[in-house]
Specification:
Length: about 450
């Protein structure tokens, strides 16, 4: 079945070009029906034609456009693919898509172009997942990891590990079937091979947290009592006026969000309403939302006012969030020189940063403290070549457990037949990462994360 979809983001008055992508056996026929190329332009693969998109019945011109032709197998899906490069906007691009559907194409499902590329052998499953990660990358480092996966830097070691397991399985099964015709099995050599495979599996598994951190990022909540400078801190940090700043306590009534990148890590910064007891119903709702945000944050920036020091209200807020990873931010240091007695002993062990948000001071120290907190939590933004995702980590964990079981089976001197059971489990788990042994439901789950048109 031929599929079609809009392959570019369509935003009113924002995009200069909109692309409608068509893939399948009828793609060229649809292009011939809808596209008029004046002059003697040659319709051949990997050529761009200039012309007009016309309604096939009325011959009304829909748009002046370009047509890109990519014939199988030299295309993204390894099927015939055509792309109509139209003027950007909503109306024209949707009209062109509708014409393609009227000519027999079906609207593509999310990720269906990439799914076809995988099913037709153009990509393995790690590369397909990397495409989704590249499109959704929220930092340059996340994009680099995704590009590494797309270039096969994950698939290559996985294939090597699977091949090593297959070689071991072949050696063992050969001794089972032809014991009398072959020399005895070198168990020490097998042990060394399995240990080497396990070591590499563990190395790949160690990148899982890093991969999740770069894909999802950190959720950081700025909390504190009213008028300690939380909104000023957000504005200074994001270098924009995202939050309203006044001298009146309780100005922020809801959660204000900003997206930043610190040390290659995407960070969602949430400025919350000042936490205090209040009779104002609207402010009370904001305070409750602040408490919820703080409870769900990966890291809390507990902000206090240097001009007043640690108060009973600060202690009450600390008691609510002390189970979360914390950094103490002492703001407004430009207004009063901080004295040691302002911070009581129970909280003196907290990582502490001094800022003067109104003067944009201390932001670099704050970012360094966040990166230190990340590293302390063993989510260090290391200089890795690649990072696996949760699905790949789950399959690698199964392979790891199976190989550990092989080692236990060998240590207990069980028959060779027992060895093969867990070796097969490891081989299957590694194959699932590449998409060689994967169920339809798993594919549906993976490609449902894609945007339509990719």
């Amino acid at each position: 079945m031929t599929i079609a979809a809009i392959a570019t983001a369509i935003v009113p008055q924002q995009g200069s070009v909109g692309i409608v992508r068509v893939s399948g056996a009828e793609a060229l026929a649809i292009a011939h029906t809808l596209f008029y190329a004046p002059g003697q332009q040659v319709w051949e693969s990997h050529r761009i034609l200039y012309g007009y998109i016309r309604h096939p019945k009325t011959q009304t011109t829909i748009d002046e456009a370009l047509l890109l032709i990519m014939q199988a197998p030299r295309s993204y899906t390894r099927e015939d693919v055509v792309e109509f490069h139209c003027h950007g906007g909503i109306v024209v691009v949707q009209q062109v898509l509708q014409l393609c559907l009227e000519q027999g194409a079906r609207l593509a499902q999310p990720g269906e172009f990439t799914l076809r590329a995988f099913l037709n052998g153009r990509l393995d499953l790690t590369q397909a997942e990397s495409i989704a990660d590249l499109v959704g990358a929220r930092s340059p480092q996340a994009a680099q990891f995704a590009l590494a996966g797309l270039q096969g830097k994950l698939a290559h070691p996985i294939r090597q590990l699977r091949a090593a397991c297959l070689d071991i399985l072949a050696e063992v099964e050969a001794r089972i079937d032809f014991e009398e015709d072959l020399p005895p099995l070198d168990e020490n050599a097998i042990k060394v091979q399995i240990a080497q495979v396990l070591s590499e599996v563990e190395h790949l598994l160690a990148t899982a947290d890093q991969g999740e951190l770069l894909r999802v990022g950190l959720k950081v909540a700025i909390v504190g009592r009213p008028n300690v400078g939380k909104s000023s801190l957000l504005n200074a940090w994001s270098r924009s006026d995202r939050a309203i700043v006044t001298d009146l306590p309780g100005t922020t009534r809801d959660v204000v969000e900003s997206q930043l990148v610190v040390g290659g890590i995407p960070i969602q910064v949430l400025d919350t309403a000042g936490i205090r007891e209040t009779g104002d119903q609207v402010e009370k709702i904001g305070v409750e939302r602040s408490r919820t945000v703080a409870q769900n944050a990966d890291l809390v920036l507990l902000t206090i006012d240097a001009t007043t020091g640690w108060t009973g209200d600060d202690q009450a807020i600390y008691d609510q969030v002390k189970h979360r990873p914390l950094i103490l931010v002492i703001n407004k240091i430009d207004l009063r020189e901080l004295s040691p007695h302002l911070i009581p002993n129970p909280q003196s062990s907290l990582p502490t940063v001094k800022t003067a948000a109104a003067l944009n001071q201390g932001i670099t120290d704050l970012e360094q403290a966040i990166l230190t907190a990340v590293q302390t939590g063993k989510l260090e933004a290391a200089n890795l070549d690649l990072a696996i995702n949760q699905r790949q980590a789950e399959a690698l964990t199964r392979a790891q457990n199976a190989l550990l079981q092989v080692q236990a089976t060998m240590a207990n001197q069980f028959p060779l037949d027992f060895w093969t059971i867990d070796l097969r489990i490891a081989i299957q788990a590694l194959g699932e990462i590449l998409g060689e042994d994967v169920t339809e439901s798993v594919l549906d789950k993976i490609f449902s994360r894609f945007c339509i048109g990719k």
